[in-house]
């Protein structure tokens, strides 16, 4: 059955491995009959700085962020292609999340005292295409998979996207010969399966 899929390339550069992975996933998903919306972070113009403490005040969303939120609300499956930089997300991608994933739209803070906010984007699944220079075993051993927990639990699950599966592509800056092509085929296979 066709799915509505939103693919977000979270790399801030115009040309990157993440861009190619997102394109490969989207192309294969479209070929398999899925309805796909593809957005590249590089093309989005918005102020990354939230600026305020707490959620009593917030800036109106720029059109680019409004479109991202509309696409998240529209989709049944969310795909994020992102590099790991300094053990976390690129600043512009983190800024997108800081600005766009707000109460009343992504999560509900109207809960009893001491309770966790309720996710507002439930019923969606997710996939992260994560590129890194560090091998996965090193990330797990040295940092206990902190970024994987952040992506899966503190961001996606928090707003209701679950399960969020992670495909890890390591050695991204200096891949072995033929490795990028293999990764692009992997992304295409996932796209064809809407997985």
Automatic annotation (TrEMBL):
Question: What does the similarity note say?
Answer: Belongs to the NAD(P)H dehydrogenase (quinone) family.
The record's PANTHER family line, in alphabetical order, gives:
NAD P H OXIDOREDUCTASE-RELATED, NAD(P)H DEHYDROGENASE [QUINONE] 1 ISOFORM 1
Q: Name the chain's protein.
A: NAD(P)H dehydrogenase
Q: Among its keywords, does the record have Oxidoreductase?
A: yes
- InterPro entries recorded for this chain? Flavodoxin_fold, Flavoprotein-like_sf, NAD(P)H_dehydrogenase_qn
For the keyword Oxidoreductase, the answer is yes
- Tell me any Pfam family this protein matches: Flavodoxin_2
Question: Which residue intervals define the domain Flavodoxin-like fold in the entry?
Answer: 3-177
